[in-house]
Design goal:
Layout lengths: L1 H37 L3 E4 L7 E6 L7 H11 L4 E8 L4 H10 L2 E5 L4 H10 L6 E6 L2 E2 L4 H15 L4 E7 L6 H9 L2 H7 L12 H4 L1 H7 L9 H8 L6 E3 L8 E5 H6 L14 H12 L3 E9 L1 E2 L6 H10 L10
Length: about 325
């Protein structure tokens, strides 16, 4: 009899603990994790129009490129998207003024953490079901945004893949340089000058480590056409795409809000900027849950350079502005 009474008391205590302490504590822990990923000191100039897609431009550290980068975004960004310039760890008046001039939003976070800044930007645009993520050294071209969205819809319609994200062909890119060379008929020329082509990323490969390969794709020697000429040619025809078999550099991608939520948002490290962590996370996720990295064969964008190429390519950018200009033929 005493055992039954004690058991009953234990059950009552357990029930009370569950509903008055454990569940609220669990909720508070989940809320704290969410806040850590999406909140922090920031400035947000809010001009969103609650459109169904968001163009999120990570910018603040390469002012040399801004005039030409934003000139292209102003010209080619679709009217169907909200646009937000995002500065991780700093406030830049030029960027704030650029956003104001174009009726875009501007987000500046106090902490320099790209994952946190992206989470905040997406959270601050709750109606955006699709997100274009752009780095500040990406040169967009005509129709690139629209083709990425059309390709996403085409992949879903075809049903062969469930996409993680969609990206354009990018010449200075471990995957993209191979496809661009093949389609321009320049494989032999590249291999004669540099190395055998291979779908492989890393600084040991010249496409990511040698500034001369970046210059080659930006028209040095007059062999590779301008990025806009390539885009004009590749834009033609029906939507085509391929699945990328290697880790992809995510300088310009389109992904869904659903994917961002499914992966628990971008993971925010306890300290540091987390630079490159978003790329590792989304590429790992794609492999682990069988989501495809899809490259749109009709869309093209330029990428100035990778880290080991940056110094030389910034000098090249200053010396040859016409190669990066919209007027370049």
């Amino acid at each position: 009899m005493i055992k039954k009474i004690l058991l009953g008391i234990f059950c009552v205590i357990k029930f009370i603990f569950r509903w008055t302490i454990r569940k609220p504590l669990g909720y508070l822990r989940r809320r704290a994790r969410l806040n850590f990923k999406t909140k922090g000191p920031h400035v947000f100039h809010d001009r969103k129009q609650n459109k169904s897609s968001l163009i999120m431009i990570l910018s603040g550290y390469k002012p040399l490129l801004w005039d030409k980068i934003f000139e292209r975004i102003e010209k080619f960004a679709p009217l169907t998207s909200d646009i937000c310039i995002v500065s991780s760890g700093k406030y830049e008046k030029f960027l704030a003024d650029t956003a104001e001039k174009n009726n875009w939003s501007y987000l500046s976070t106090k902490r320099n953490c790209v994952s946190l800044a992206q989470n905040m930007a997406i959270t601050l645009h709750p109606k955006a079901e699709f997100i274009y993520k752009l780095d500040e050294d990406i040169f967009v071209t005509q129709n690139s945004f629209e083709i990425l969205m059309d390709t996403y819809k085409k992949v879903i319609e075809d049903g062969l893949y469930e996409p993680a994200f969609i990206a354009p062909l990018i010449p200075v890119n471990a995957y993209g340089h191979v496809r661009v060379l093949e389609r321009l008929g320049l494989v032999n020329e590249y291999e004669k000058r540099f190395e055998r082509i291979k779908y492989q990323s890393g600084r040991d490969h010249m496409i990511e480590g040698n500034p001369e390969t970046a210059k080659f794709f930006w028209g040095e020697g007059g062999i590779v056409p301008s990025i806009d000429s390539i885009a004009e040619e590749f834009n033609k025809g029906n939507i085509k795409y391929k699945a990328c078999p290697i880790r992809f550099s995510i300088g310009f991608i389109l992904f869904s809000r659903r994917l961002w939520l499914d992966m628990g948002m971008w993971q925010v490290p306890r300290s540091g900027s987390g630079m490159g962590g978003d790329e590792v996370q989304i590429c790992n996720l794609a492999m682990s849950i069988s989501r495809a990295i899809i490259v749109a064969e009709n869309a093209v964008a330029g990428h100035l350079s990778f880290g080991p190429q940056n110094e030389a390519m910034q000098e090249y950018f200053i010396a040859h502005p016409e190669k990066f200009s919209l007027a370049c033929e």
